[in-house]
Write a sequence for this structure.
């Protein structure tokens, strides 16, 4: 189905056409594509949910790797190293085609894609973030650990009241940088059918044959948002310093 | 099950070769653009610095997939000719990783003690010689570990090229899946292959690092963390 609004002439001028951008952002009612704003919203959802997964799971991996129980630390190391050195794209396929259909049988495909996509993104970046946490935890002076032993604090309080409050502020900028990196990885999710920005651009392109404006606008959106979100992270870096 | 793997292996290995070609090609492009833009960022001419900055910000600020699609789908419409998918992939990944590498080059050059540069001036080295014979050999040692990480990122990124129909490892895996339906097994083998490749890259980079340090008369300490001190091999 080819849909052309009045604003855009049907024939291809071969030049940049602003009306295409308008069409992409505000599709006519019977259009075969969703507005790019819709994709932007899904992209933001994917980033936020993925980031929450990565921030929590990354910390768990980092703590597991420090465990004195060998199998625990060994498992965490193996998981982190494996996920970190294989492509996110293949991991997404694995989650979407193998894991999620077996775990959530009754779910419709669109939700399955989102579950696989968000957790895949989160899991992949959890391994990066675990390295960041590890560096932050290593940066806590040894005396702090000794003090907790001297005070015979229970294990949980050692982490929650002494170590993490000192480690986490220092790693905030690095974690923030990874959240921006995650944001830029979201377009990969279109391969399993999550309707993020690149998905919208693709469906616009395939129904109008105008890829130029569609893909360029997606690029500009990414550029603008990542430059803007980098500002608070630079501020954090100035406050807490580089790791 | 093991015999299935054996059947898939020839096709998957052909994919591995293409993956390595893309990774290698993009590494060459990336190395070139990283050095070019990293050195440009130190230029005394404002306009040269701005060009380097814009390149780095644009390629670091947008998605690798979007860049790939832009080069493959949009560029042909603007310039009138289309790259072969594999060349488009190499170009896009190379330019992307080069932007990250640019910061590595810039940082490592800045980390070379100022005295080295001053000594070269005192010995009346020409600016080109100063860079080539004094600064870069020392900066290079610091660049190798981050370049190794980027090379692994590049290997992982090469999977994206399957989206523009280049028959590398991921693409072959998808094809086999559609043909055989043995999804879990095929993707597991593909993931393990990527893991092995990444491991080999890590090994190779450690070797390079040892050699670069040896050429400067330094001996690496046991681990390769950037904070580790280097030990002078021969007392002067």
């Amino acid at each position: 189905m080819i849909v052309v609004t009045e604003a855009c002439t049907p024939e291809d001028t071969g030049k940049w056409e602003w009306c295409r951008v308008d069409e992409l952002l505000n599709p006519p009612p019977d259009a075969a594509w969703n507005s790019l704003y819709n994709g932007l919203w899904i992209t933001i959802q994917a980033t936020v949910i993925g980031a929450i997964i990565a921030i929590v799971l990354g910390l768990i991996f980092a703590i597991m790797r420090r465990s004195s129980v060998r199998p625990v630390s060994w498992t965490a190391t193996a998981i982190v190293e494996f996920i970190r050195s294989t492509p996110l794209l293949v991991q997404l396929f694995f989650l979407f085609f193998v894991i999620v259909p077996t775990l959530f049988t009754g779910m419709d495909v669109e939700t399955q894609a989102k579950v696989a996509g968000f957790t895949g993104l989160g899991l992949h970046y959890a391994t990066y973030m675990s390295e960041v946490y590890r560096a932050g935890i290593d940066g806590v002076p040894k005396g702090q650990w000794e003090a907790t032993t001297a005070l015979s604090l229970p294990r949980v309080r050692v982490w929650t009241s002494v170590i993490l409050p000192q480690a986490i502020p220092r790693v905030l900028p690095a974690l923030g940088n990874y959240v921006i990196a995650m944001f830029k990885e979201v377009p990969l999710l279109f391969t399993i059918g999550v309707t993020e920005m690149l998905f919208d651009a693709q469906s616009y392109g395939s129904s109008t044959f105008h890829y130029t404006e569609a893909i360029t606008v997606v690029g500009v959106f990414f550029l603008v948002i990542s430059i803007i979100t980098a500002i608070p992270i630079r501020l954090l870096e100035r406050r807490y310093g580089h790791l | 099950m093991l015999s299935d793997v054996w059947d898939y292996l020839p096709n998957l290995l052909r994919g591995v070769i293409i993956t390595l070609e893309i990774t290698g090609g993009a590494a060459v492009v990336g190395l070139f653009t990283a050095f070019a833009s990293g050195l440009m960022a130190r230029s005394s001419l404002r306009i040269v610095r701005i060009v380097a900055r814009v390149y780095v910000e644009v390629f670091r600020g947008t998605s690798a997939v979007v860049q790939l699609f832009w080069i493959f789908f949009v560029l042909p419409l603007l310039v009138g000719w289309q790259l072969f998918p594999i060349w488009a992939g190499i170009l896009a990944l190379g330019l992307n990783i080069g932007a990250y590498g640019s910061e590595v080059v810039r940082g490592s050059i800045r980390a070379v003690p100022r005295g080295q540069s001053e000594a070269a001036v005192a010995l009346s080295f020409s600016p080109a010689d100063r860079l080539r014979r004094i600064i870069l050999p020392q900066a290079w040692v610091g660049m190798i570990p981050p370049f190794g990480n980027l090379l692994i990122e590049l290997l992982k990124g090469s999977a994206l090229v399957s989206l523009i129909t280049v028959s590398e490892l991921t693409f072959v895996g998808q094809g086999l899946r559609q043909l055989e339906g043995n999804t879990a097994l095929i993707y597991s083998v593909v993931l393990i292959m990527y893991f092995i490749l990444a491991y080999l890259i890590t090994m190779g980079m450690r070797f390079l690092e040892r050699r670069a340090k040896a050429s400067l008369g330094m001996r690496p300490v046991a681990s390769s963390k950037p904070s580790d001190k280097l030990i002078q091999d021969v007392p002067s």
Q: What stands out?
A: The longest helix of chain A spans residues 155-185. The domain at 18-240 of chain A is CATH 1.10.3720.10 (MetI-like fold). The radius of gyration of chain A is 22 Å. Chain A is about 75% helix and 0% strand.
